[in-house]
Design brief:
Elements: H1 4-10, E1 16-17, H2 22-26, E2 32-37, H3 49-60, E3 64-69, H4 91-108, E4 115-118, H5 120-123, H6 128-134, H7 141-144, H8 148-155, H9 162-165, H10 167-182, E5 186-190, H11 194-208, E6 213-217, E7 231-232, E8 235-236, H12 246-254, H13 258-268, H14 273-285, H15 291-305, H16 307-321, H17 327-333, E9 334-337, H18 343-349, H19 356-364, E10 368-370, E11 373-374, E12 393-397, E13 404-408
Parallel strand pairs: 2-3, 2-5, 3-4, 5-6, 9-13
Antiparallel strand pairs: 1-6, 7-8, 10-11, 10-12, 12-13
Helix pairs in contact: 10-11, 12-15, 12-16, 13-14, 13-15, 15-16
The protein binds one RNA strand of 86 nucleotides through helix 13 and helix 19.
RNA sequence: GCGUCGGUGGCGGAGUGGUCAAUCGCACUUGGCUGUAAACCAAGCGACUUCGGUCUGCGCAGGUUCGAAUCCUGCCCGGCGCACCA
């Protein structure tokens, strides 16, 4: 079996590590690795998958993994990447989010065992004086204000509260706690977490005189827009099927550009490197077939939602973009609508437009078709005359949006 | 506490009494080209509308005015300087 260091490197999971060599962390003794997850939402999004899949390789190599939900720190907020002070979350929300997120991680880890922790457990009972004495003493403000994320805020004269400023101390304290409790000796994260993680490493070393490690992966960035991966036109692609349907997730990956698809296959799927290479080569022969994107979309949807949901997403993709739907096809995906709705109403009801004004714009932009014929009047009421020979109305609004099949009640 | 500068749409950032639903850039949506790509070109981008308009909007609340994002008062929030305290 390939060494973990090789796997991580060839898949692009390695950005920085605190040890001289990556091998020191990955290939020697079995480690206990921790990843902190921010519970600010009740679901992870596809951007979180990079780290989770990297960790899955650790698990499969025999290392232990701790997922630390930032129940305590989540109530505070990390200043990283945010130009504004964050809203604080209440305890109940954090707890609810944490349990939803843990369930998603279990799924992505494919049933492999890991330790779940929540730093609210030890942070919420922390005594201020003890904290200042035992933790605060080991951090210098001199070093803290040099951190990019802090310096930016200072330079832009954008406020940063003491609370946010203290974030890395708490993260360091977490590391110390997990080290003594579980012997945790590696902390991983996205490259934006590097300085926080490193602060923890140094803290544990000073405090306990123990060597612990830091390892980060590169953030996945959309090369054409320079934006963090995982955001789409309508916001994040969530792992929660209720927030983002498996169908939509599948569509999202199907639409990934050629530039990015190879990288994503390595980082977001478990396909062996050799297989990915083959897929990318096949794809290059005929990029129009979107072979690599199909593979990517399938693999990711399967990892997150399972085989059944993937099959359903494939069926739905097939039907909702198909040119000539059969009667049976239409029956499968049809939605019944009330008689008397205008086209604008239906566009809003089916989620193509957020408001009637938006629906109007779609129609004015020549985006809306009924049974393949361009619609020119939003206010028209849909009626018997719009029905095709199967008694259905096939509605499309924008070519990258799936079609809807409507039946009058 | 005193002084001073500032708070505008998802973000950045103009505007400083009427022509402002608010220049511009980014993001986003749609159309064209294509491969359900990218790049590029074009249009759109508060809501409602009988398509004439109407309503809501520039930190919050009042006021002045025929008319306010723009002026005044109070409040809230933030930056900077000074003072105070340690």
């Amino acid at each position: 079996m390939a060494k973990l260091s090789e796997i991580l490197r060839e898949r692009g999971y390695v950005h920085q590590h605190s040890s001289e060599t990556l091998e020191e962390i990955t290939d020697g003794q079995k480690r206990t690795v921790y990843l902190g997850i921010d519970p600010s939402a009740d679901s992870l999004h596809v951007g979180n998958l990079v780290g989770l899949l990297a960790l899955r390789h650790f698990i499969e190599d025999g290392h232990k993994v701790i997922i630390l939900t930032g129940g305590g720190t989540g109530m505070i907020g990390d200043p990283g990447g945010k130009s504004e002070e964050r809203n604080l979350l209440d305890e109940e929300t954090v707890a609810r989010n944490a349990s939803a997120v843990a369930a998603q991680i279990r799924q992505v880890f494919g049933g492999k065992d890991f330790i779940e922790e929540n730093n609210a457990k030890w942070l919420s009972t922390l005594n201020l004086l003890e904290f200042l004495r035992d933790v605060g003493k080991h951090f210098t403000v001199n070093a803290m204000i040099k951190k990019d994320i802090v310096r930016d805020r200072l330079e832009k004269e954008s406020p940063i509260s003491f609370t946010e400023f203290s974030y890395s101390l708490l993260q360091g304290f977490d590391y110390l706690h997990l080290n003594s409790e579980y012997g945790c000796d590696v902390q991983v994260g996205g490259s934006d977490q590097w300085s926080n993680i490193l602060a923890g490493v140094e803290f544990v070393r000073r405090k306990e005189e123990k060597s612990v490690y830091a390892l980060t992966w590169p953030l996945v960035v959309n090369k054409s827009t320079g934006k963090k991966f995982g955001k789409s036109e309508e916001g994040a692609i969530w792992l929660d099927a209720k927030k983002t349907s498996p169908f939509r997730m599948y569509q999202f990956f199907l639409n990934v550009d050629d530039e990015a698809v190879g990288e994503l296959l390595l980082k977001l799927t478990l396909l062996p490197k050799a297989t990915v290479d083959d897929v990318v080569m096949d794809h290059a022969k005929n990029p129009g077939a979107r072979f690599a994107q199909r593979k990517l979309a399938q693999e990711v949807t399967r990892i997150v939602h399972g085989d059944d949901a993937l099959a359903a997403a494939l069926t739905e993709t097939d039907l909702r973009f198909k040119k000539d739907l059969t009667r049976a096809d239409k029956d499968q995906i049809r939605t019944d609508i009330e008689v008397g709705m205008t086209i604008a109403d239906v566009l809003v009801a089916q989620g193509y437009a957020e408001s009637k004004s938006a629906a109007r714009r779609l129609v004015e932009g020549k985006a809306v078709k009924i049974n393949g014929t361009l619609v020119d009047d939003v206010d028209r009421v849909l009626g018997k005359d719009d029905v095709d020979s199967d008694g259905m109305i096939v509605l499309t609004a924008g070519k990258s949006q799936p079609a809807s099949v409507l039946a009058l009640k």
